[in-house]
UniProtKB/TrEMBL annotation:
Keywords: Glycosidase, Hydrolase, Signal. The keyword Signal applies. PANTHER family: GLYCOSYL HYDROLASE, LP05116P. It comes from Hyaloscypha variabilis (strain UAMH 11265 / GT02V1 / F). Residues 1-20 form the signal peptide. This is Glycoside hydrolase family 1 protein. Belongs to the glycosyl hydrolase 1 family.
């Protein structure tokens, strides 16, 4: 018997007993056969929803809505904003350098979203639950106000209107993700044709409006069944299931999509492991502290296999993965803080970027940390992983100061009981006390405290990526954006839509990209996060990133 299956069964039993439901069909299964039988003979679609999620809300509007014309009165450019003051290491705003700069021909820009954050309609047309349905419905406090994505922005039915608005904005790209559990309600097995038809129409509608569709295959919404069956990404079983899903998507939409992103931010979804106990079957054979790194290993294998498969199918759009993280600045001029910064790049961006852009393998600092528990990649695997991103796609919102722990980085690495181990670096948003302790930039909404407006560092950030990972296809900023502070507590709509910090963030960020381009960095496009206010994961609807206001109630 696999030990992880036990809490899974106990949980199932508890729920069944409480609900007194007679639709439960897993009561007669032993833990052993749950691991071996394939769906739906073990668990039905209804069981998955009833046992692990429970009742969901539905929107009043629940059929596909036609687009209505966008009133031009709603498309008013924001008032002029002054460029920010410059300070240590920062560059003067473009306006004073060369006001005639413009983006190169072929530069693409647009807006982004992700299926789980905007679609709603969670049980519509055969969609299976994802881990996030269970997390938000069952784990009290997992999102700050216990909000769910049941309805969200209802984009599942309103995508035509949303795409018409994107076109009216005058941008040329819409980047969205496909829900794996719509296409495969169990993550593997039976394909749901209704889901394939739906996304086909989303893609076709973009094309009809002259907006290029960018598609992400995985934006964190793992099919719940795969988490329950084998523990999700920390298990090697995920690789084949993911590649099989990718094969269906690439084959179905093929060359209608000019830019593909296979995975969104593996750093972020791998650090979500371990998931809370008692809500899922989890792979208890892997110690909780190791789970993020097993996840990372399988994310790289799944990504690279999917990449090669897509190329072998003749996909001619660019194919990449989206990395993430802020620019890293040493807190002081000490050599230890410089070391801390280097280690931070290795443990975050480098974890995925070194294998894909440099040599098929992890940075040295990670390799020595992994040595005691994670198998090395074989030569064949390294070869498979290296070179599998056509552009360096980075979700680059902000910047932070990094510092070494007391006693230095090396001493920390040797000492498991150091509170900073295993990362062995710390970060802060404040300048050193000697520089007055000022915060690095204006902070976003309190529900997104990691985000500060640090647009002065954009050129340095872009140079760093270009110099370190030398992406042949250039750099794309696949997410940047800002959650205006306290927007969700405002009640007067004109006040809500007047976004001072967000507007200057976008303006100065774009200027930063122009500076970098002028200085020779190949930046190929950028995507504002997000097209509209949406379910900001654990922050719920309180932290608003939308460049369109959307009242979710
Ligand atoms: C992105 N950081 O995540 C995600 O892709 C989106 O789904 C999310 O809504 C958006 O950012 C805003 O949070 C990030 O700490 C999370 O640098 C954290 C960071 C960056 C991106």
């Amino acid at each position: 018997m696999k030990i992880w299956a036990l809490p899974f069964l106990i949980q199932a039993c508890l729920i069944a007993c409480h609900s007194g439901s007679d639709t439960v069909r897993i009561g007669t299964n032993t833990a052993a056969n749950l691991t071996t039988l394939s769906p739906p003979t073990v668990i039905t679609w209804d069981d998955l929803w009833d046992l692990y999620v429970g009742p969901v809300a539905t929107a009043t509007l629940n059929t596909t809505m036609a687009a209505t014309p966008i009133p031009t009165a709603e498309l008013i450019p924001p008032p002029h904003l002054n460029p920010a003051a410059s300070s240590r290491g920062q560059q003067v705003p473009m306006a004073t350098k060369n006001s005639s700069w413009s983006f190169p021909k072929g530069f693409w820009w647009g807006v982004a979203s992700a299926a789980y954050q905007v679609e709603g309609a969670v049980k519509a047309e055969g969609r299976g639950p994802s881990i996030w349905d269970a997390l938000l419905h069952r784990v009290t406090g997992y999102s700050v106000a216990n909000e769910t994505a049941d309805i969200a922005d209802n984009q599942y039915y309103m995508y035509k209107q949303d795409i018409a608005r994107i076109a009216a904005l005058g941008v040329n790209t819409y980047s969205f993700s496909i829900s794996w559990s719509r296409v495969f309600p169990f993550g593997n097995g039976q394909v749901n044709q209704l889901a394939l038809d739906h996304y086909d129409d989303v893609i076709n509608t973009c094309i009809e409006y002259g907006v290029e569709p960018s598609v992400t295959l995985y934006h964190w919404d793992l099919p719940l069944y795969l988490q329950n069956s084998y523990g999700g990404w920390p298990s090697s079983q995920i690789v084949d299931d993911f590649v099989n899903y990718a094969k269906v998507i690439f084959s179905y939409y093929g060359n209608k999509v000019p830019r593909w992103y296979i995975l969104n931010e593996p750093i972020a979804f791998c650090y979500d492991y371990p998931l809370p106990d008692n809500y899922f079957g989890a792979n208890k054979e892997i110690p909780t502290w190791q789970q993020p790194y097993w996840c990372g290993r399988h994310a790289l294998l799944a990504h690279s296999k999917a990449y090669h498969l897509a190329k072998s199918l003749g996909i001619n759009g660019t194919i990449s993965f989206k990395n993430n993280g802020g620019y890293k600045i040493p807190l002081t001029n000490s050599t230890e803080d410089a070391k801390a910064v280097e280690r931070a790049w290795d443990f975050f961006e480098g974890w995925f970027a070194n294998p894909v852009f440099i040599n098929g393998n992890f940075p040295e600092a990670l390799k020595s940390f992994f040595a005691s528990f994670l198998p090395d990649f074989t030569d064949e695997e390294k070869q498979m992983i290296n070179g599998t991103s056509d552009v360096f796609a980075h979700d680059a919102y902000t910047a932070e100061f990094y510092f070494a722990p007391k006693g230095g980085v090396d001493a920390c690495v040797q000492n498991i009981s150091n509170p900073y181990w295993p990362l062995c670096f710390g970060s802060t948003y404040n300048n050193p006390a000697s520089a007055g302790g000022w915060v690095i930039g204006a902070v976003a909404d309190p529900l997104s405290p990691w985000l500060h407006k640090t647009t002065e560092w954009v050129p340095a950030f872009l140079h760093f990526i270009a110099d370190k990972w030398k992406p042949k296809g250039g750099i794309a900023i696949t997410e940047f954006g800002f959650a205006e502070p306290f927007e969700s507590v405002k009640t007067n709509k004109p006040d809500i839509v007047f976004d001072s910090i967000r507007s200057s963030y976008y303006k100065e960020y774009l200027e930063g990209i122009l500076i970098a381009i002028d200085e020779g960095v190949n930046v190929v496009g950028c995507l504002a996060w997000s097209i509209l206010d949406n379910l900001e994961w654990r922050a719920g609807y309180g932290s608003r990133f939308g460049i369109h206001f959307y009242l979710i109630k």
